[in-house]
Amino acid sequence: MDYVSPATLTASTKPTGSLTLKGIRKQFQFKDRELKVLSGFDLNINPGEFVSIVGPSGCGKSTLLRLIAGLDDSYEGVITLDGQRVAGTSLERGLVFQDHRLFPWMTLEQNVALALTNRPLSKAAKAKLVAEHIALVGLKGFEKAWPHQLSGGMAQRAAIARALVNEPKVLLLDEPFGALDALTRVHLQTELQRIWLSSGATMIMITHDVEEAIYLGDRVVVMQANPGRIVHTVDVGLSHPRDRASPVLHRLKDEILAELTNPPVEASSVVPLRKDQDQ
């Protein structure tokens, strides 16, 4: 499948999955203080776009993903999906973790089908969706395999199939390949690119791997900590599929790494609780 930029799609074919984050502020109570995790975070993501987010540990990347997923509603600001405010979890937003989290007592097929439990579809329709998404991630023929019979890369592809089987508008990926060896990781990056182009879903990926972020992302959002905020957004500007040897990718990698390794501008991340707040 040839890459088609979301911006070139007509109104009749333009996919859903437009995500807007405006004025996001998040803080945690820590003893008698408040720890600022995110401050003034603004980001617009186009339908069908692949956005990578990189930044140092503790800059709020995973917290941000939890807010988008609806797992945490204790924050300031607004998050909308296709104009509707995000409130709680929804089948419209799939989530893939670093650990595949497959149930060991279920086959691959059963693990993927489990995601459809609350979807009002016939048994035949569910079976069709499961088969299609197992094939999409390249695991056809392993439907009856148990998780312990799968390699790490195969298990992670199964987790992606489970997240996509409900055909979400947005797929959120939290370090999806972080636990894999280098060769498997490179292979699955290519696979994820293929899956994204086939599914048409908007994808937001958190990663510490700058090369991975640039190879997959239409845009790379660079964050800094204390408090977590966007310091730079990089438009990669290359069509998919991509050549890893591209000079553009290497130049962008060097630029982003330099930005991440330079001392960040300090900002106070911890403030005392006001007297009228609970201790």
Keyphrases for this structure?
279 residues; alpha/beta; Rossmann fold; six-stranded mixed sheet; five-stranded antiparallel sheet; 11 strands; 30% helix; 24% strand; disordered N terminus; disordered C terminus
Structure description:
This protein has seven helices and eleven strands. With 279 residues, the protein is α/β, with parallel strands linked by helices. The chain has a domain at 15-103 and 170-245: P-loop containing nucleotide triphosphate hydrolases (Rossmann fold). Strands 6-7-8-3-9-10 form a six-stranded mixed sheet, sandwiched between helices. Helix 2 (108-114) packs parallel to helix 4 and helix 6 packs across helix 7. The longest helix is centred in the C-terminal third of the chain and has 18 residues, at 182-199. It starts with 18 loop residues before the first strand and ends in a 7-residue tail after the last strand.
Overall pLDDT metric: 86
Give a count of the beta strands, DSSP E runs of length 2 or more. 11
**Mind summarizing the main beta sheet?**
6 strands, mixed
Query: What's the CATH architecture name of the domain at 15-103 and 170-245?
Result: 3-Layer(aba) Sandwich
- Could you name the CATH class of the domain at 15-103 and 170-245? Alpha Beta
- Note the overall shape: globular
Strand order of the largest sheet: 6-7-8-3-9-10
Query: Percent of residues in helical segments?
Result: 25-40%
**Residue fraction in strands:** 15-25%
Gap between N and C termini:
56 Å
Computed CA radius of gyration, to the nearest angstrom? 19 Å
The string of secondary-structure elements, in order, is EEEHEEEHHHEHEHEEHE
The CATH homologous superfamily of the domain at 15-103 and 170-245 is called P-loop containing nucleotide triphosphate hydrolases
Give the helix tally: 7
Helix/strand/pairing category: alpha/beta
Q: pLDDT under 50 segments (min length 5)?
A: 1-12, 267-279
CATH topology (level 3) name of the domain at 15-103 and 170-245:
Rossmann fold
